[in-house]
Model the fold of this input.
Amino acid sequence: MNRRTFALGAMSALSATQVIGANDRVRMGLIGSGGRGREDWDTFLKQPEVEPVAVCDVYEPFLQKGLEMAAGKAKPFHDFRKLLEQKDIDAVIVGTPDHWHALMTIAACEAGKDVYCEKPLSLVASEGRKMVAAARKNNRVVQTGSQQRSGSHYAAAVKLIQDGGIGEVHRIQCGFQRNAFPGFKPTEMADGKTTGFDYDMWLGPAPKRAFDPFRCIYNFRWFWDYSGGQMTNWGAHHLDIARWIVGAEAPMVVSGMGGRYGLTDGGETPDVQMVNFQFPKVVVTWTVSEIAEGPKGATIDVYGSKGMMSLTRPGFQVTPEQVGSKGEKKPAMEALKMKGADLNVQHARNFLDCVKSRKRPNADVEEGHRSAVMCHLGNISTRLGRSLKWDAAKEQVVGDAEANTMLSKAYRGPWKLM
Done:
């Protein structure tokens, strides 16, 4: 690098531009052909060694869209278990709502498939540890869909910070702000017609509820039965990077507050939330607002004694601190900046390369589990209205039986984890 601007580094598309031989092909299936699932599918289908084999969804219009993207090369499935029985599949994408991630990932590992599972890895903390165990037991490559982990500028930023490039860091601020007031609306089946939709299968292990189009498709994120709001949506991305920067497995203390104050759409998860995570000598803060965006959207701000780094998906820039006595202040370091690249492609490439090399990927299932737990603890603290002390070795909240009951969740029969 020169003094002012980072080069993009070695994480280029070299591996993607190699001539791929027939024996290097990766035969893939898609489970969950909704919006994000199809985005992942599109990214993987553009990689030269990927061969589409199967698409599964419980909503017929989404199933057909996934099949069309595969240009007639993939077989349709309505039950993921039937897809996993296929011997000609090497790896699957799990792009379903969060409450399905653990069941499908573990079943795929048991079936001998590698897995690219969208984030957050789990719905509750106990699921994640079982997912790790299944991956290790079956020697499977499991990549969490936290694509920032494969971003070349994120890796460069973490190295710069950990090498002391912006001085001592004791505070990291992560956030997501937007204005969704007065609330969200159904994106599918708003007329109440459920033609081609297997609602009972969509619910799966989640509690039985009367059909409501608002609870399905994109808006599942705002209901505790299926997800954890923006904490496990954008928080799973940004807090993962913060934890990477700190270099710790987990926070020691978590303290959250907030609620659904302004949105009137019937959702449950917070539209305003602030959570502090205490690490050794570092405080990480997560803030979310769904009712006012202000000047910033999705951000990670890292405060060092020599400079402040603003780290976003388009890139990062470091603003030097001014040091010295009044009237004689000067920058403590050079200003720095680096542009980002296509995170989705970089993350997919890392997964495919690991499928072939059998190495662990950048967002290995263990890392995905640890970052998901961080998010789950933030939500538990917010919902209970009190701070939590976390024992990372035992994966238990210290001295709080009620909080520990929220680390797991009962499944609706006949579904159960292996």
